[in-house]
Design goal:
Elements: H1 3-16, E1 20-24, E2 28-34, E3 37-42, E4 45-49, E5 54-61, E6 65-75, E7 81-92, H2 95-100, H3 105-121, H4 126-131, H5 133-148, E8 153-165, H6 167-250
Antiparallel strand pairs: 1-4, 2-3, 2-5, 6-7, 7-8
Helix pairs in contact: 3-5
Length: about 260
């Protein structure tokens, strides 16, 4: 045995008898393997790892993280092509599962989110994708959280950012919206004309009624006036006759002449 072998053996022996210091930052965890087999987790703070025998196989953050999903080509239920992108917020809840249950966790999550977006869009018609965005986000959150649970991941939020139909579909939608606006304008115009005609007819009818009522009141007032006039005349004649009778009674009678 030469001296070089002796030196190497001594170094290995000394290293095996000592510990390697590891500092784990706050909100992070590390997994330690011993001779290739999982042994334990390292929590934040000062930790010791035996060299040669142990190694830090994985170290990850427990903070909330974001995956930016690039635009995905999707087909709706009514066979309309569109592009949708999203952001996904997630965090690790079990570091051991995240390392040993799936290989390359970020890539696996991104592929899963892409698949879920295409699947969800395929169940909706084009109009529903614009009006039910909150419902889509909730559905994606529920499905992704359930699918990533075996990986030790908690999905906290999913947000669809843009839903953009193909150019031909956008042009068709623009034409449809223009036609719809013209239709509404024509309807409003015709309703306005109809309302104007109704108001005019109602005005004429009300004017005729008012005129007839005025004539009727005039006739009644005239008749009432004539009746009052006749009553007054009759009362005047009666009073005059009564006055004459009273006068006649007050005149003394002449004595009859003697024969």
């Amino acid at each position: 045995m030469d001296w070089w072998t002796v030196v190497v053996g001594a170094i290995v022996a000394l290293s095996a008898g000592s510990s390697t210091i590891k500092i784990i930052p706050q909100q992070e965890e590390a997994l330690v393997e011993s001779f290739g087999k999982y042994q334990r987790k390292l929590k934040p703070g000062l930790q010791f790892v035996m060299p040669v025998r142990d190694r830090v196989a994985y170290q990850a953050s427990l903070r909330e993280q974001v995956i930016d999903i690039p635009p995905q080509q999707c087909i709706t239920r009514d066979n309309v092509s569109l592009v949708a992108d999203a952001v996904v917020y997630w965090r690790l809840v079990d570091t051991e599962k995240a390392f040993y249950k799936v290989q390359n966790l970020p890539m696996a999550m991104e592929n899963l989110v892409r698949t879920q977006i295409r699947s969800e869009m395929g169940q909706l018609e084009l109009d529903e994708t614009f009006t039910a965005r909150s419902q889509i986000n909730e559905t994606l959150l529920r499905d992704l959280d359930e699918a990533t649970d075996p990986w030790g991941v908690k999905v906290t939020r999913v947000e669809l950012r843009d839903i953009v139909p193909a150019k031909a579909v956008q042009d068709s939608m623009e034409l449809q919206m223009t036609a719809e606006r013209r239709k509404r304008a024509a309807i409003l115009t015709s309703e306005g004309e109809r309302e104007s005609a109704v108001n005019s007819a109602r005005g004429r009818a009300e004017a005729q009624v008012l005129e007839a009522e005025a004539r009727q009141k005039s006739v009644l007032l005239q008749a009432e006036a004539e009746r009052q006039q006749q009553i007054l005349k009759a009362r005047a004649v009666a009073e005059a006759a009564e006055l004459i009778a009273q006068k006649m009674q007050s005149i003394p009678k002449r004595p009859k002449p003697l024969r």
